[in-house]
């Protein structure tokens, strides 16, 4: 067949590459800021937008979706074209994808700073942005599959399967976890509640790690590592096996985020078992990557790109061993809610994601500008600075994690808890300082890269359209009977459908029973819906991101029951849209906070935490004392909750504000008794109402229905 | 948007995980056999795709 001449589109790769670097720096700055705030809470400058609870989601979203997201697109757009021997299906779609994604990121940053959040980790973005993400993702999919259909290379290389699986699964995860009922333009309530919400959230959350932070990057590894080392992957057979094993097993691992919580036992066990099994396919990937360099280690000595890839793949191996270990219940009992989790995350994030991105960029930029890297020495220094940065980041946090977990669990000889929660915080401040130094070093390294690549670009000349030649695929009618597997390798659409089925099985088995089987979420008769005032207060709690530091899940351990009260039962959370169990105890658990302190304690604590808790690192929330509750939203919130199945009486939305004001007046009256004057519709009143409700339902006597509620 | 409780109790639900285990195992068995039997040269050709 006659070879056809065509051109690879490098312009789109260049743009995604610039975006990767730009958002990478922004995301790292946000991370550094958040890290500093942990020991210098005053740096939030008493503004709502810059408190840790708002900055943290900006950091996570910027790193995951802006930095790694653009990195994925950079690598996919470059490698897919060359593996398919075809230009992208549509230049127009490429650019809609690019600009759409960047617009989404800007919208995300703005809305998160302003407090528009769903209150679910890594899925904080509100529903209009969720819809935009879906549209852009579909456009990406059309572009990707269109390219596959018009490819000139028959075989679909393993990297591309990873891209296909990524696309399919991210679509599934995003759509299912984002089911929410909008209340207003930028506010919605999760369709799920309590235990079910937790399970869906962490099915999503862990698979965001799996299918956004792992599988596409493995795809990039399978392309760029062989390219940089100029040798084929160690074992293609292994890549086939570990691909299918990975995408099947990963989906089930979500419940390991919920061990010893109110999640049903059978779901917890499934999560643990599958997380352990996950070691095999993950290490399959790591070994495949490292063994590819068998006999080429001298190249690693010379080439910064390979240095980054080697450490990246090694960190991937470390994190995918550590993760399963932390999924064992006995280890999890110590690790959960502690800084160990953060250390684990950042081994993967800084080591695997960051270093793969850096290596890829160092490889791509000289290639696309037809020149050599400006300074190999600078790149090598970046490598060392980054590696040391990772160590100085992670080791203090391991120390902090073990320390706080131990201190939380220490009893005196007489059987009392030895340490107040605040003591466990102040004790690890030096670790928080060290960790921010590690992160700072890592950021400096990244800036060195930006400079290095800028100088490289300056001395090169960009190849916007790279010429290539290949013959189109001929439909073979082979005389010999083919192996049946050839059939699936050549059919990307079939592979798409199969991957979808495979990943859907795991999700379905774990999630569906909690919805369909009545006995799976036991109800507690004394648990009642939140009052309108408490609901408004809860929305303030979500808005300020309190869940980023405070958990609401007392585990059935002696030390937790001693410190916080009765352990949390599944039935207590049935009306929580969204659930707010939290993942971290930078501050104490709040599940049984109700009635522990007088209203005035909370008032002063929000004004400035250090008034009530000297040495506290919590930011101050003085604006809550002046801002007014938006009572115009009460009716629509009650109606939304009713739609979601919360049993408010029929027509209650019309009278809800009356009850709200009545309860608010009571709280204001009580505060007056403690010499605190506040308008009864101040936001602090709503928040106090919510906080005082937490965990009290199981102690409540079944009340007689009042005449008012019966109206 | 109340949930419909299709099942009143969990007894007997084990057919679903059993089915998924069988699907998974059969698929893997077949895949492993294929991987072991596939022609060496074909593997070599495919693994060289990024380099050519």
CATH architecture type of the largest domain in chain A? Up-down Bundle
Count of helical stretches of chain A: 27
Query: What about the largest sheet of chain A?
Result: 2 strands, antiparallel
Strand order of the largest sheet of chain A: 1-4
CATH superfamily of the largest domain in chain A: Cytochrome c oxidase-like, subunit I domain
CATH topology of the largest domain in chain A: the name is Cytochrome C Oxidase, Chain A
Give me the secondary-structure category of chain A: mainly alpha
Detail the topology: elements first, then pairings.
The complex is a heterodimer of chains A (711) and B (52).
Chain A: E1 4-9, H1 11-37, H2 52-84, H3 91-113, H4 127-149, H5 158-177, E2 180-184, E3 187-190, H6 194-229, H7 236-250, H8 265-277, H9 279-291, H10 297-302, H11 304-326, H12 329-335, H13 339-368, H14 376-408, H15 421-427, H16 429-459, E4 465-470, H17 485-489, H18 492-516, H19 532-543, H20 558-564, H21 599-607, H22 609-612, H23 623-626, H24 634-643, H25 652-673, H26 683-693, H27 707-710
Antiparallel strand pairs in A: 1-4, 2-3
Helix pairs in contact in A: 1-2, 1-3, 1-16, 2-3, 2-6, 3-4, 4-5, 5-6, 5-7, 5-18, 6-13, 6-18, 7-9, 7-18, 9-11, 11-13, 11-14, 13-14, 13-16, 14-15, 14-16, 19-26, 21-26, 24-25, 25-26
Chain B: H1 15-37, H2 40-47
């Amino acid at each position: 067949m006659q070879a056809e001449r065509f051109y690879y589109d490098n312009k789109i790769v260049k743009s995604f590459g610039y975006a990767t670097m730009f958002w990478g720096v922004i995301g790292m700055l946000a991370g550094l800021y958040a890290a500093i705030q942990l020991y210098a809470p005053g740096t939030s400058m008493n503004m709502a937008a810059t408190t840790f609870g708002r900055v943290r989601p900006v950091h996570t979203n910027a790193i995951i979706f802006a930095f790694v997201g653009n990195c994925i697109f950079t690598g996919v757009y470059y490698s897919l074209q060359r593996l398919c021997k075809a230009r992208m299906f549509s230049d127009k779609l490429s650019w809609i994808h690019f600009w759409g994604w960047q617009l989404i990121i800007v919208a995300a940053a703005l809305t998160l700073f302003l407090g528009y959040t769903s209150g679910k980790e890594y899925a904080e973005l509100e529903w209009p942005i969720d819809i935009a993400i879906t549209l852009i993702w579909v456009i990406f999919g059309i572009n990707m599959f269109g390219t596959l259909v018009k490819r000139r290379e028959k075989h679909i290389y393993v990297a591309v399967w990873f891209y296909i699986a990524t696309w399919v699964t991210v679509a599934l995860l995003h759509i299912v976890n984002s089911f929410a009922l909008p209340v207003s333009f930028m506010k919605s309530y999760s369709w799920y509640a309590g235990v079910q919400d937790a399970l869906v959230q962490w099915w999503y959350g862990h698979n965001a790690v799996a299918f956004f932070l792992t599988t596409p990057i493995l795809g990039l590894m399978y392309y760029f590592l062989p390219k940089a080392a100029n040798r084929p992957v160690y074992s293609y057979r292994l890549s086939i096996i570990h691909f299918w094993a990975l995408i099947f097993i990963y989906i089930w691992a979500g419940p390991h985020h919920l061990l010893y919580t109110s999640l049903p036992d059978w779901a917890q066990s499934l999560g643990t078992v599958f997380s352990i099994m996950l070691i095999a396919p993950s290490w399959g990937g790591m070994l495949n990557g490292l063994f590819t360099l068998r006999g080429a280690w001298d190249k690693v000595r010379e080439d910064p790109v390979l240095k980054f890839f080697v450490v990246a793949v090694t960190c991937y191996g470390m994190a995918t061993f550590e993760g399963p270990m932390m999924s064992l219940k006995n280890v999890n009992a110590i690790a959960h809610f502690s800084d160990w989790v953060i250390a684990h995350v950042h081994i993967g994030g800084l080591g695997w994601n960051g270093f793969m991105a850096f290596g890829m960029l160092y490889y791509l930029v000289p290639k696309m500008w037809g020149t050599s890297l400006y300074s190999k020495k600078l790149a090598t220094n970046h490598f060392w600075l980054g590696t040391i940065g990772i160590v100085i980041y992670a080791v203090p946090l391991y120390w902090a994690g073990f320390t706080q977990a131990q201190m939380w669990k220490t009893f005196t000889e007489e059987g009392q808890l030895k340490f107040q929660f605040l003591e466990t915080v102040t004790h690890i401040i030096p670790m928080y300082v060290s960790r921010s130094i590690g992160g700072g070093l890592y950021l400096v390294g990244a800036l060195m890269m930006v400079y290095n690549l800028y100088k490289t670009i300056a001395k090169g000349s960009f190849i916007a359209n790279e010429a290539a030649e290949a013959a189109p695929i001929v439909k073979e009618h082979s005389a010999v009977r083919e192996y049946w597997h050839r059939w699936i390798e050549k059919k990307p659409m079939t592979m798409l459908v199969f991957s979808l089925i495979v990943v859907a099985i795991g999700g379905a088995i774990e999630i569906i029973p909690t919805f369909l089987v009545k006995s799976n979420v036991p109800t507690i008769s004394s648990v009642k819906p939140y009052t309108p005032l408490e609901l408004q207060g809860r929305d303030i709690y979500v808005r300020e991101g309190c869940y980023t530091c405070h958990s609401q899940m007392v585990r059935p351990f002696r030390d937790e029951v001693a410190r916080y009260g009765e352990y949390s039962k599944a039935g207590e959370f049935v009306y929580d849209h969204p659930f707010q169990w939290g993942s971290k105890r930078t501050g104490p658990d709040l599940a049984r906070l109700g009635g522990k302190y007088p209203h005035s304690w909370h008032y002063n604590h929000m004004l400035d935490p250090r008034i009530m808790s000297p040495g506290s690192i919590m930011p101050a929330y003085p604006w809550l004392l002046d801002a007014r509750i938006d009572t115009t939203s009460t009716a629509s919130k009650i109606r939304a909750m009713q739609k979601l199945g919360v049993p408010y009486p029929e027509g209650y939305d019309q009278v809800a504000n009356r009850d709200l004001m009545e309860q608010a007046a009571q709280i204001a009256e009580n505060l007056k008794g403690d010499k605190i004057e506040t308008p009864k519709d101040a936001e602090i009143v709503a928040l106090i109402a919510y906080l005082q409700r937490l965990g009290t339902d199981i102690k409540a006597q079944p009340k007689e229905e009042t005449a008012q509620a019966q109206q | 948007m109340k949930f419909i409780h299709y099942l009143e109790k969990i007894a007997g639900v084990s057919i679903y995980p059993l089915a998924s285990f069988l699907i998974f195992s059969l698929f893997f068995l077949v895949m492993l056999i294929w991987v072991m039997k596939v022609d060496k040269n074909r593997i070599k050709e495919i693994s060289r795709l990024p380099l050519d």
